[in-house]
Amino acid sequence: MSNTFDVIILGGGPAGYVCAIRCAQLGLSTAVVEREKLGGVCVNVGCIPSKALLHAAYVANLVRHDAKTLGVTVGEPTLDFGVAVKHSRKVADQNSKGVGFLMKKHKVTVIQGEGTVQQGRKVKVGGETYTATKGLVLATGTRVKGIPQIGLELDGERIISTNEALFLDEAPESVAIIGAGAVGCEFADMLNAFGTKVTLVEILPHILPLEDDEAADALAKSFKKRKIEMLVSAKVKGAKVGDEGVTLEIEAGDGTKSITVEQVLIGAGRQLNTDGSGLAEAGITLTKQGFVEVDAQLRTSADRVYAIGDIAGPPMLAHKGSREGVFVAELIAGKTPHPIRYDNIPSVTYCHPEVASVGLTEAQCKEQDLDYVVGRFPFSANGRARASLETEGFVKIIRDKRYGEILGAHIVASHASELIHELVVARENEYTVEEVDLAVHAHPTLSEAVAEAALDSLGRVIHI
Amino acid sequence: MVTKVLMEALSPTMEEGKLLTWLKQEGDEVTAGDVLAEVETDKAVMELQARGAGVLRRILAADGATVAVGSIVGIIADPDEEIPDLPTAGAPKEKPAAAPKQPAEPAAAPDAAPTSPPSPQPEVPAPAGGRVKASPLARRMASERGLDLSRVAGSGPGGRIVKRDVEGTEAAAPTAAGAYEDVELSQLRKTIAKRLVQSLGPIPHFFLTTEIDMERAADAREALNALGDGPKISFNDIVMKVVAAALRQHRACNAWWLDGKIRYFEDVHLSMAVAIPDGLITPVIRHADRKSLREIATEARQLAERARERKLTPEEYTGGTFSVSNLGMFDIEHFTAVINPPEAGIVAVGSIVERPVVADGELEVRKRMRLTMSCDHRVIDGATGAQFLQTVKRMLENPLALVW
Prior knowledge:
The structure holds 2 protein chains of 2 kinds. By secondary structure, chain A is α/β, with parallel strands linked by helices. Chain A has helices at 14-25, 40-45, 47-66, 81-105, 162-165, 182-193, 213-225, 318-332, 362-367, 383-387, 416-428, 433-438, 448-457, and strands spanning 4-10, 30-34, 109-112, 115-118, 122-125, 128-138, 142-144, 159-160, 174-178, 197-201, 229-231, 234-241, 246-252, 255-261, 263-266, 270-272, 305-307, 347-349, 354-359, 372-378, 394-400, 406-413. Chain A has 3 domains: 4-143 and 271-342, FAD/NAD(P)-binding domain (3-Layer(bba) Sandwich), CATH 3.50.50.60; 148-268, FAD/NAD(P)-binding domain (3-Layer(bba) Sandwich); 353-457, 2-Layer Sandwich (Enolase-like, domain 1), CATH 3.30.390. Chain A is globular and about 65 Å long. Chain A starts with a strand and ends in a 7-residue tail after the last helix. The model of chain A has no long low-confidence stretch (mean pLDDT 96). A 6-stranded mixed β-sheet of chain B has the order 10-19-18-17-13-16. A 4-stranded antiparallel β-sheet of chain B has the order 1-8-6-3, with no helix packed on it. In chain B, strand 11 and strand 12 form a beta hairpin. The A-B interface holds A 338, 402-405, 429-432, 434-435 and B 135-138, 140-141, 144, 157, 162-163.
């Protein structure tokens, strides 16, 4: 086997493997270097298994609360987190194998091992050195990390990361989750459904601090109903690990309080994998924040070396990485790919209800002094949502007052993750709220609420 | 100089032409007036003539090709000159929409052309089928700004015109200007427009000059300023007030030339040319016809100040319906201004000078001012412009007309 390829990609996660497939489609000989499992964090210890567990949480709550109303009486459910984890592992493994199959199908060489970058687009894996003639793509992603500054060094027992949480045999009696972003909220949702007493600790004034305040508030309201405790504007000052569990000193608002929990789950912050792969030696510079420094074409400071995915900068989302992978593949193949619209990347939190958004929040519109109008439609007025007892949430569309441009969209709903894309497509093609309304929406669907919110922004909402 | 060879409208009703035979080949030297090719129109076989001299560098439509009027079929340029890379004009089966003309940029006029900040008119690739691809948002913005999308180069996928392209042309893209009436172009108007464009750049200007006696206006100004209870009123304020009032009576001059139609406005929004350190900008006094002289003076001063501080918002420098440019303060007695599209007219105001004139058979020294109006001939005909200017002259010579 030759050790020379057109393109070598370091990292087989959603950015790297998608890049590899696109390279292969474009006729480039391609290799992917992966030290663990194909599919990366997303497939193995991230997006995919957590969705399996969240679905289990959904079913638990369905049986517990709504089944009876629907005429299905099954009694108090027996919950076994370990079984749910088993299902999630099966799904993750299937997906990882699926990536392997795709690599084979596209004749992408997979090199198993830890790669070290060397000058001149060379990658050393074990005793072998591989050379990329046309492009070397860095897609090494991130890994979990603790917060040792406040005594929260990961130990895998009491102080755990998502890597451990996704493999628990049983749900802990109590847990404090540090960070109420998408990851923190998803674990709060799933563990709560499996009977864990959850305390979410967020340093900023809202849970889901990157989302629109209204959306975050709607989820907070739902969490509160389920007795998930939320400490916002709360700072962990110290942590002590004892026999009984972990005692946290938390400064929140008016004073300091101390809570003791069985486990602490770190749901915030990830370590960029920019260390230990020889980047500095290969002449690749990093930004102040530690990301690999790239230009608008994702080129690093070294000749024909590109960076994609989490290490290339925020937002750290799988779908952003995948798109960057396609972009770079086309660039290397000599095409002129359409620039990535970083302002039109949707973000989703898969709680119940789900929270999905694209574009600006209302607070950002205010900050930028934009002239805007908000349209809203609550799912409590949507027939389909009522039929399935999923009336929590709303669609909120923020449009430019003058031209109707969709500045931002925020959806809280049982299937917000699926609903948001209509508005992503609209924004990508510069449809205004009028075009969203003009497209006929099937009845009865949750999507009708999207059209109604667009109409509401025009002052013509029908069903409220 | 690069001269584009366009498929010309060789008959008034012609929308496309069939290029029968090129009589010149790539590399041939040509002079203006040379017959380049034979073209079959809807009525007859006609000759396509060179409009410039040089070498026929590129032939973009093959013998036998049918191309829309206005499409670029060839390029004449100096032997070594860099020429734009243009696609070949096809032989579209479907009827193409009238393709946009994109004659060379008008030569930078030496006078105070009140073109608002840099108004990039990107080189338009010859649209193969004449179809304009644009996003709904871009269409909406363009229509509200009176922008002709066929003149905008698209930067989106496949050359699609997207928001940023329309934003880029914001300068030349006035915002909505209130109530108006769109009048579809008659065949005659269309033909006149086409002909004139061919003869004189994208906007067929013509100029009307009148000399105005400013004695009474000067007296009125002095009296008003002597009251000392308001802003100082300048001659330019008076001219703007009068122009606005006259436009109210001559709607035909208060109009925009848009693609395929003329938009006549009910309200007068006056663009005033203001020199700023690195160029020129035309802030707009909205509803100037409904404002008092004092209000105009105050607003003009504030806008000029904000313009020089570069603090104008797009709303403040777009949407004008007619322009006034004044170089009197530089002792320019007479000049012609370049029209600020899509507006159809502009008056260039010269300095007030004492001149010997014959009045009632007597030689007298009087304050006189020359006013020159530039008209877009596609919108304003000679007599139309002249009548408007006559009203302006009468009002300035008898400022009491403003009161009655």
